[in-house]
Specification:
The complex is a heterodimer. By secondary structure, chain A is α/β, with parallel strands linked by helices. In chain A, 34% of the residues lie in helices and 14% in strands. Chain A is built from nine helices and ten strands. Residues 285-293 of chain A have low confidence and may be disordered. By secondary structure, chain B is α/β, with parallel strands linked by helices. In chain B, strand 4 (138-144), helix 8 (151-162) and strand 5 (167-173) form a beta-alpha-beta unit. In chain B, helix 15 (482-495) crosses helix 21 (624-635). Classes of the chains: A alpha/beta, B alpha/beta. At the A-B interface, helix 1, helix 2, helix 7 and helix 8 of A face helix 1, helix 2, helix 4, helix 6 and strand 2 of B.
Chain lengths: 304, 637
Amino acid sequence: MAIDKQTLTHLQRLESEAIHILREVVAEAEKPVMLYSVGKDSAVMLHLARKAFYPSPPPFPLLHVDTTWKFQEMYKLRDRMAQESGMELLVYQNPEAQERGINPFDHGALHTDMWKTEGLKQALNLYGFDAAFGGARRDEEKSRAKERIFSFRTASHGWDPKNQRPELWNLYNARKNKGESIRVFPISNWTELDIWQYIHLNDVPIVPLYFADHRPTVERDGMLLMVDDDRFPLRDGETPVMRSIRFRTLGCYPLTGAVESTAKTLPEVIQETLLTTTSERQGRAIDKDAGGAGMEKKKQEGYF
Amino acid sequence: MTDTIADPIYKTDALIAEDIDQYLKVHEHKTMLRFITCGSVDDGKSTLIGRLLYDSKMIFEDQLEALQADSKKVGTQGQEIDFALLVDGLAAEREQGITIDVAYRFFATEKRKFIVADTPGHEQYTRNMVTGASTADLAVILIDARKGVLTQTRRHSYLAHLIGIRNIVLAINKMDLVDYDQAVYDGILKDYSEFARSIGITAFTPIPISGFKGDNITGPSANTPWYKGPALIAHLETVEVNSATDADKPFRMPVQWVNRPNLDFRGFSGLIATGSVKPGDAVRVLPSGKTSSVTRIVTLDGDLEEAVAGQSVTLCFADEVDCSRGDVIALADNPPQAADQFEATIVWMADEAMLPGRPYWLKLGTQTVSATVQQPKYQVNVNTMEHLAAKTLDLNAIGVANLSTDRQIVFEPYADNRTLGGFILVDKITNATVAAGMLNFSLRRAQNVHWQATDVSRDSHANLKNQKPAVLWLTGLSGAGKSTIANLVEKKLVRMNRHTFLLDGDNVRHGLNKDLGFTDADRVENIRRVGEVAKLMTDAGLIVITAFISPFRSERDMVRQMMQPGEFIEVHIDTPLADAEARDVKGLYKKARAGDLKNFTGIDSPYEAPEDPEIHIDTTALTAEEAADLIIARLIP
């Protein structure tokens, strides 16, 4: 494959940048880990890691901070990808959340806080990881647009947006004291469209829920929810209805709104994405807390 | 305000709807341009970015609704949409109505994907602008047509030029507010051209625009028939990007990581900085200078026939040459040089001022070394470009200074190669990134001064004295008893037939260091010199005892690094400040408290106690005699 230097495309540049970042962390961190949420961004990040270290398997484990409320299809793909990539898969579930039976139906914001934010901190402390890759992108949300690629965290996992390390050229400062850690975002500069295009061009395996299919759903509080298992408590008068739906983002199934769609192929999904008039995080409840600074506040507390 | 926004010009919706596969093919071949926008909110910067995002459909309906709500609540544009709120993402920025940090925004047109680094305009955020500029191919410098070339215009232009941005767009904005008057535009153009030439900007592209009304943004405006140049987007879509220019330079790739899955495979992974590489190419590994040839360019998608600047690859060699992280793989017959002394331009980015002589980590490409910066030759006034005398560099200061590294690094002048010429400095204690710098050239003396090999080795010196050389480094507050204990230790060692030498803080300041005062910078230099002297004495086989306050951890660590492993013994003479002050043998604390003595350790200058000293002496529990015995017992078990 010959390359005309004039046509080093934006995807080639983004891919090279991400691979460079992944390698820098492996070279400089003591114990890196990749946070793997099984979503499309994680899928791309994992694929990039496989490219970065080929023919070696990526020299770090995958960590899934599990809430026990993910879609069944996500658990299936997670286990398959760990096996295919030859990487160790660590699954962490916050035992306290488990014990108290924290769930998205009864506990609202506490569910995210305990399973995800607390669970992540506990897992990182338990294994002593000093660098964690995450699949966040700057185009997702306002405070993320300002976050560094190497994002420094205090020993208590806090993020100080006003005191970030300057990040120049592609020189990343991975130095830290004991107990401190860095979160690293190799796909910071990718947009939602870039992700889809990359998945399309590289045949990156993704959860089938991104494609339209007939699935059991109920409409609740303006969201279309999928009844993924029998833990879904139906309210009076609710009966699951089969609808052709798909998901733009994937999280805990009771918190993730579906869109009605007939897009069954990647080009069709991309087509829909491009013609839509709402942002992808619109289907998620998490960004809307605490006014305009919801995500910034969560990140200061240690959310990814 | 939404209805004043022109129709989105990127008329791709039809193609997306009708032939998504064709659309994807087009998108797949887009190139990428990174640029920064410089100017303050008043220049209409946020409005311009908001428009670019809106016009390219990067603002969705739900975001627009949120923006409308925010504009009413905290906006500065009355009932109209305040686009600044879209770009200023941090709570503090939204509250104060200013941009503090760099924000990255994304949009795309038919031809290109764009990453905009939106950088703050105020002087106190110079470091943020430099950060945003470091990855940019192009800078858009905004001027308010009503105000013309201002101090900040000059500052932004200087910084963009300093960081090596060759494509500069002068966007003369708010043309609608001066009735699209060509004379206003021409006047500003003339002023700016003169200034640009004076700082070495040879070419720039001026465009009269209105971010608010949309003139000359996406297409030629009917309001400026006298302007014949490209609209802003058309220019951004066609200007040459850095990676294309980099591909024409000689091949260089800093090695990030050695890939060794098994005994049969050894590959060298990195991002190609400049040039291109093919299997069969002769390459040289630096700094060792060993040569080999490339056999394969390995990727998960199969081997490549060629790879160019900007690509991350893994190379295999024909020979088993030694090559590891920090080395640079280069074209065999045109390699870069290695050196350890340089002139550099430095942008200071930390609240704590630069300390000449203090060792910092220097990261350049994939090389990390210890480096010290000398007192600046001058500092640049970023508003007037005047050269000012400077002893140090404060936050946001830009200066030129010589620096030396503790070993040779492979480099090229920044003007030729951003990757091999740009570096960051990292504080060794806090690990904060404290500066960014650009190597201008290496100093000749580094190339011409060589180590003279001598035949009598340091081992022979030590053997002759029948002892193991060491440095007993006593550190502690003034009045802690360092000199007293050091003196006792030396007396006892001499009685044991050991060859010793005592370097005392006060005594050294009468001779070797009599030109130094007590500022932080002078304290650093004081310790550096003492360290070098102590090192020479250990080379001569002596046991050196030093008694210096040596308040900073970094400098004590610097001396530790100079010595052979195990030969540096840090002794913390630990006395509570109240005790030392109560004793006040020399009456110095009294003077310091009265304000007659500045920069006195413990009073108005910090003492950084050792975290893990080899020997810890608690003077409240031990007499000087006992302390001396304890130190000797640890030195000679």
